[in-house]
Structures are given as C-alpha cells and as structure tokens.
Amino acid sequence: MGKTGLTLSILASKRSAKSKDTTSISTPWRGSGQPVNIKGPSSSCSDVVSPQKFRNGEIHNWYRIKLGYSDHLVAGLLEEFKIQPDQTVIDPFCGTGTTLVECMKRGIDSIGMDANPSSLFSAKVKTNWRIKSSRLLALLEEIRDRQRKYLRRKAAFREDLTYQYIEKTGMLDRGWISPEPLRKAIAIKSNIADLRTTAEYRDALMLALIAEVIDEASNVKFGPELYCGPAKTDAAVFAGFSRLVESMARDLNIVASTVYGTAKVVQGDARKCDQFLINGAPRKYAAVICSPPYPAEHDYTRNARLELAFLEEVTDKTTLRLIKKQMIRSHTKGLYKGDNDHKEIAGNVAIRSIVNRLKRRIKTKTHGFARLYPIIVQEYFGGMKRHFSSISKLLVPGAQCAYVVGDQSSYLRVHIPTAEILSTIAEDVGFKTVGIQHWRSRWSTTTSSEIHENILLLKKV
Questions:
Q1: Which of 45, 68, 179, 425 is deepest in the core (most CB within 10 A)?
Q2: C-alpha of 317 from chain center
Q3: Alpha-carbon span 204 to 51, nearest angstrom
Q4: What distance, in Å, lies between the first and last C-alpha atoms of the chain?
C-alpha cells in the first residue's frame, strides 16, 4: 500500500500513562518525509488563528476520555491533509471532541457525532468558547458561598437521581465511589442546578465536576478497562472542582483573542451518518479524522457509567439500553436480538476465516460470552461497512480520511487485523486505500503480545 509523507515522531511525546493491563511502547508513525511542523497552520491561514498559543492541552484537559487518542495526532493529520479554513472536517466518533477542538484552534469548521451522551456533553462544552471567563468565576464564587448549605441537605442528597442510580446498581457497594466524596459531589451538582444562569454556564461547571469525580474523587481506575482502586474515605472535592473551573477560565482567556473555527455536535448512530448530518447539503465534508471502537471487550458505556449517572442520562436499564443500541457492536455485552449488521459482510473472506477460527476454539470453552465472539466480530465489521456507506454520501470527491484503530487478540488470542479488514470493507463502498501507517504499540499482559494501533488512510473516490 502507498505511503504518505508524514512522520509523527513528535506525537509520542504526550502519551497516556501506563495502564494496569498494558504498557505503551513509543513506536511513532513513520512516513518517508520530514517531521511535520504542528506549531501552526499554513501561511494562508496564519492570520486567522495562532496555534502557538496552545501548548499545554488547553481546552482538551477540561475532560479527556481514558481511551481517547492524542490531540497531537489530530494536529499532525490536519497538517498532512492540508486542511484550510474554507473546508469542513467531520468526526463521526467524536468522543469528547479532540478532533473538533484541534480544528477550532486552526480556524477550521467541523462537525462531530457520537452515540454516548456523556462524550457528547463533553464535546459540546469544550467547543463552546463563547462563555466568559469572568462570569464563570463569578458563578464559582456563588457555589463556594452556598456549598455548606447544600452539604447539610441530607434528605435531598438521597433523593438525587445520581445517588439513587449509583446505590441501586451496587456501584456504591462495589466501591466505584465512596459515600463521603459522593455526598460532596452531589452537593456541588445540586448547587450548580440551582444557579440563576444559562445552560451553557451550568454545563461548563458540570463538566468540571465530572472531571474531578472521575480523576480524583472516585475510586475508579482504567487499565484499560475500568476497575476500582483503594477506597477513599474522603476527598477534597470542592477544592479540585474549583481548580478545574479556574483552569477553564484561563483557557477561555486564551481563546478569546483568537478567531476560531465553528463546531457542531450531534447525537446519533455512526451507521446512519447521512440521516443525521446531511442537512440538505450532501458531499460537503473535505476530511474525516476519527477513532472508532475496536472489536474488543471495551464497554464504553461502562467506562463512562459515573459520567452518565451524574448527567442523569442513565437512570435504569432501559435508558442504558437505548444508548447502547445506537452504538456499533464492538463487545459482547452490547449485542441485541434483531442485530443483523453481519449480513453486510457475508462474503468477506478475511472475516470468515477469523470467525471459523473462533468457532473452533469456543468448542472447548464453557463460559457463556465465548459463544458470542464469532457473532460480535461479524456485527462489528458489518456495522463499520454501514458506516462507510453512510459517510461516503457526505464527502466531497477526493476527501481524505483517517481512521485510528487497533489490532486485537482479546478473543481467545485470535488475531484481528482491524485496519486491514476495514480497508477492504471501505474499498467495497467507494473508498481508495492510501495506506495503513503504524502509530504506536502497546504490550498486552492479557495475551502476552504486542498490540498495534494503526491509522487507516482512505480517500473518497
């Protein structure tokens, strides 16, 4: 396959911390050219925005998804694709908005889609740079002045929907978060809800609270799956929340002096992009930069369960199921009766070979989920084919696409070359494969093997 001229050795500088299950190996994506300068846009748009101002994760650090990809990677791809301010980028798996924020910094318009309400909430907040830092800090002081009163509301605490869900589902008993930090967090949540202000300011404050809960106040860890670490009997929740709000205000002061791109965020199923995003103007997007789910046992709604609970997006099994049904099937706990995406890839030889290997191996397994492994592989790739077919209707001819995906061996150690298979599927529906470039590797202690993450580069024919 073809090579691009992009070298992203600079992108290895800010990797996520080593996880419980995996160890990162700094293996950069290498092309045949010189290192890409990601400090700023091309000269044609240097008068629009100055990305030199953004050096320390501004905006991105408001909240980061634990399985997300690097903003430095997105910056390099925007440079490689030579995207200009008069073009629009789409991220159909936008998560917390990494691609959208990087586009905004460069004066590029973008649109993002996600099925997970907590990711969508974060992306919307992080792409709203209209809020004023002074007003945000004034509201923080209002919360500070009233916090003791809210902490005394013991009855209201137990009536809160977030508390009820966390208690009812056993998350409290299993140690996802300890009682005292939870009580303090819910007091802040109630305080925010009662503020006399607009929704955009309440949302920004809620994002800061959620970030503090996940990173500091709760007991959850990621390795890469969610697990519970040592229980905290107490936590300085308000102090951490306050620091995050003050950091938001500093970032807003930075972006206030720039002319930035616009970003739109919509909730939807990536298998139906054309239904949600077409808006009467088909074939208008010049590039796709995204990281879809991988065929592995990553339950994205479980990893975001605390966030979903604090946003009251999940209050019972029904609300959780509604979210999962909008997602591409990528793990066995996300399969439902009536799923039939597998029909889309019935003739794919590579997928059939993987499925046959899995069927032979599950004959000796007794646990229930093993029998679903062949099914989930077919549903995943069938769902991705539906996605490619859908998004192709929105792209201009020649549109450049980057899909960051990982190979997998988590299903009974049967190797799944995700990027290679997605390449063949995309070519079936009107894309040309430009190349598959290695981005980074990690060591999986589960399979005792090196797992590769790759960038699948496509072009709309």
A1: 425
A2: 22
A3: 23
A4: 16
CATH second-level architecture of 9-129+257-293+328-452? 3-Layer(aba) Sandwich (3.40)
Residue type, 431: F
Could you tell me which of 153, 169, 107, 122 has the C-alpha nearest to residue 314?
A: 169
449 pLDDT band, cuts 50/70/90, is confident
Express as a percent the part of the chain with pLDDT over 90.
70
Please name the residue ranges forming H helices in 222-328: 237-255, 273-277, 300-303, 305-310, 317-324
3-state secondary structure 139-208: HHHHHHHHHHHHHCCHHHHHHCHHHHHHHHCCCCCCCCCCHHHHHHHHHHHHHHHCCCCCHHHHHHHHHH
Q: Which residue has the tokens 């102090």?
A: 239
CA distance linking residue 83 with residue 66, whole number of Å: 27
DSSP string computed for 86-136: TSEEEETT-TTTHHHHHHHHTT-EEEEEES-HHHHHHHHHHT---S-HHHH
Spatial distance between the Cα atoms of 81 and 402, rounded to a whole number of angstroms: 10
Q: How many CB atoms lie within 10 A of CB 194?
A: 11
Confidence at 20, pLDDT banded by 50, 70, 90: very low
The half-sphere exposure of 45 on its side-chain side, counting CA atoms within 13 A, is: 26
Delimit the domains of the chain by residue range. 9-129+257-293+328-452, 133-255
**What would the two tokens of residue 420 be?**
């290679």
Inform me whether the pLDDT recorded for 247 exceeds 80.
Answer: yes
Count each helix (H run) and each strand (E run) in the chain, helices first: 16, 10
- 185-189, 292-296, 413-417, 442-446: which has the minimum mean pLDDT? 442-446
